[in-house]
Write a structure and sequence with these properties.
The complex is a heterodimer of chains A (196) and B (338).
Chain A: H1 6-16, H2 20-40, H3 45-64, H4 74-104, H5 114-117, H6 125-137, H7 140-150, H8 156-163, H9 167-182, H10 185-191
Chain B: H1 16-26, H2 32-44, H3 46-64, H4 66-81, H5 95-117, H6 121-155, H7 161-180, H8 199-233, H9 237-244, H10 261-285, H11 292-335
Classes of the chains: A mainly alpha (196), B mainly alpha (338).
């Protein structure tokens, strides 16, 4: 990983000097990304804000105490803080769950994660149009495999049984379909060599 | 028409390794150690971050907005995975079954020629060896023709497929009997302690039995299956699902009787037992001559061929019913998520 860019170093220096606008700029830039990363680590939606807030506060404190020396990149450093905070979060959470289970003598059962219970917002019309267009242009078998996997939650083995295909083939088609949905030209070249 | 992504000139990260990882990351298919490295990069790379946001939106839309996905989805699944997808092909995609059933059916009828002249094989061998191959070819063609007629009429939306296929088979059998009749002896050939039938009458009886058996074990199941394939292709998955799973509101399509596979199995077993008993009675009464061995062998082979025709039809029917159930259940499950 490369060390931090000059812009980042300047931003950190300003934060260390107590510049409030620099801190706001840092917050605006990194908060959404950290929130997304917390989501990818299965932190429930309702706890993501608090957790990211903790990460940013810890980062500001360390910057102001000049504890970030730039040996690693800013990104690696922030991910390190996020990982620690998330580890603490799960540790605290499991202790809390165990305590509740013991005191109330209830059985913990696998339930739907909270994040899944929160309804998704209505898609932006542009995104909906792009999704529809990309879907319509996928080869049929790619579309079927992608939809069964992504929207219906079927595993590759289940899809393979349904379509009477080897699991490996379904896995390959799924990989291609995901890249094609994104509009990744590399996948297109692998799918049909020579097509640009 | 553009391919996905073509014509969209989006700036991409200068490091292809990360650009490739975006897809895996957003679909949740990245390993933990790669994820940490990737996220550290995304924290500093605005291009990758924007691409992650864009792909996240696409995936979220895909998961949340069912109206986007239902448009072609059912028809895609059916056309790829379902038994109804092969309905437009010759004999609705059941070529092997049709071929095998027709050959066994024709073998039985052709073998009857030998069976009915066996006791005087020295006199009628030339006739049998000439007539049997012709009978075989004619009846095999008739069998295929009957099933193909059913498929064509069903595909055209007509309900008369079963009647037509039975008509084709009966007509072909009647015609071959009319042609063979003058060459068949008008006196009893088989020698037994009781009065046996004349060769002409015995051959007619054999033909009638064979046609009836084939109609029950081949034509009726085939008609039901192709009719259901047509119904599924027409999107009537709910009806098919109800019918095949014994739902309260199940209604079979017009003139397509639904004989349960287990019932056919029971009929086959009963028929086989009856046949064993009646054959044993015949064998006990046979007079021993130099050709009684040939007669007994033709009876045994014919019995085995009947069994093969029944078992093949039953196995195919069971498998096709399962395919129908599978297709209707998948589409029903997708259109009625739990």
């Amino acid at each position: 990983m490369e060390p931090s860019s000059p812009d980042d170093r300047s931003l950190l220096a300003q934060i260390a000097a107590g510049d409030q606008r620099a801190a706001e700029s840092f917050d605006a830039r990194f908060r959404p990304r950290l929130q997304r990363f917390a989501q990818s680590r299965m932190v429930p939606f309702q706890d993501q804000n608090d957790l990211v807030q903790d990460v940013l506060l810890a980062a500001f404190q360390k910057i102001r105490e000049h504890k970030f020396h730039g040996e690693s990149s800013l990104g690696t450093w922030l991910i390190g803080i996020l990982s620690h905070k998330i580890a603490d979060y799960w540790d605290r959470n499991s202790r809390e769950s165990g305590r509740i289970a013991r005191t109330e003598n209830i059985e913990l059962t696998a339930t739907q994660p909270a994040i899944d219970r929160i309804p998704d917002p209505a898609p932006h019309p542009d995104v909906a149009v792009e999704t529809r267009e990309n879907l319509a242009m996928l080869p049929k078998e790619h579309r079927v495999v992608l939809l069964l996997n992504v929207t219906e939650g079927w595993t590759t083995d289940e899809i393979a049984a349904l379509l009477k295909m080897p699991s490996g083939t379904v896995g390959r088609i799924l990989w291609e379909a995901k890249h094609l949905l994104r509009g990744n030209p590399r996948a297109l070249k692998k799918l049909a060599p020579g097509r640009d | 028409m553009n391919e996905p992504g073509e014509g969209v000139d989006r700036p991409r990260c200068s490091q292809p390794e990360w650009n490739e990882a975006i897809t895996d990351y957003c679909f949740g298919g990245v390993r933990q150690e790669d994820r940490d490295r990737f996220e550290a990069h995304v924290l500093e790379c605005d291009l990758c971050w924007h691409e992650v946001q864009r792909l996240d939106s696409l995936i979220k839309t895909l998961r949340s907005d069912k109206s986007l996905t239902q448009r072609h989805f059912t028809s895609d699944i059916v056309s790829m995975a379902g038994i109804s997808s092969v309905f437009p092909r010759f004999v609705a995609g059941h070529r092997i079954h049709v071929g095998v059933a027709a050959v066994i059916f024709a073998c039985i009828v052709a073998l009857s020629v030998f069976m009915e002249i066996a006791y005087q094989y020295d006199r009628f061998a030339a006739f049998a060896w000439t007539a049997a191959p012709v009978v075989f070819l004619w009846m095999a063609a008739a069998g295929i023709g009957a099933l193909a007629t059913d498929w064509r009429l069903t595909r055209a939306g007509r309900a008369s497929g079963l009647a037509a296929s039975i008509g084709v088979l009966v007509s072909a059998a009647a015609l071959q009997y009319m042609v063979l009749r003058p060459f068949l002896p008008i006196f009893p050939i088989t020698e037994a302690t009781f009065q046996t039938w004349t060769a002409q009458a015995a051959f007619l009886k054999d033909t009638v039995y064979t046609v009836a058996f084939t109609a029950l074990f081949t034509l009726v199941p085939f008609h039901f299956i192709v009719t259901m394939q047509r119904e599924l292709q027409g999107g009537r998955h709910r009806m098919a699902f109800e019918l095949l799973t014994g739902g309260r509101f199940a209604v079979a399509p017009t003139r397509a009787p639904y004989i349960r596979a287990w019932l056919l199995g029971v009929l086959l077993v009963c028929g086989a037992i009856y046949s064993i008993v009646s054959t044993a009675h015949l064998l006990e009464a046979l007079k021993v001559t130099e050709y009684s061995n040939l007669f007994i062998h033709t009876i045994q082979i014919r019995w085995l061929l009947f069994l093969a025709l029944g078992l093949e039809g039953l196995a195919w029917y069971h498998s096709a019913l399962n395919e129908l159930k599978r297709e209707s259940a998948v589409v029903y499950r997708l259109s009625n998520p739990i």
